[in-house]
Amino acid sequence: MFEIGQYYHIYNRGSDKRNIILDENDLKRFFQSLIEFNSIEPSGSIYLKNLKKYKLKELSSRTTQKLVSIIAYCINPNHFHLILSPLVENGIEKFMQRIGGYTRYFNEKHKRSGVLFQGKFKSKLIEDDRYLIQLSAYVNLNNLDKNFNPSFDLSKSSLQEYTKDEYKGLCDKTIILNNFKNKKDYTEVAKALWLETLKRKENIEFE
After folding, report:
1. What CATH number does residue 91 fall under?
2. pLDDT at 98 over 50
3. CA dist., res. 74 & res. 99, Å (int)
């Protein structure tokens, strides 16, 4: 289904639009999953060992082969967006299956049972570079309002990786930033694209 070298928009939301992030530790836990689970090696039970105390490990420095290339991400209280490119066969499927283990963490911590996400994750092929750039803006700024202020208290995106030189992060940004003179140039274009997106949403709501 997912071809190596292609790029995909991967997204999902909480079942019945419920929140999947309830506190800062949940946010850090989901973000850490993006790092720790992106390896062809078995992920083991690193989180289960820390589950009862809800403490987080330092970010992994493992250099083993990755399952996917993460281009951009945004984690919001009730949904998430990822731009991924598989690096190995079935890379996205394996990566997302591991990310799905967040449900176990969430249910045990918050003393609940049942599904957390709204079915299997959704995916869409990104067919050209222009759309890839547009989508990177959509994902990077997805947690901001029209004034570029945070729309949510509990959210995290890869925007800083694309806009601040000192912020290394975890994304493979070359495919996007090679189309711009510098990060400032990308930031201006991304903001303009995001405002266009918000304007379209407002027009749809009032139709």
Report:
1. 3.30.70.1290
2. yes
3. 14
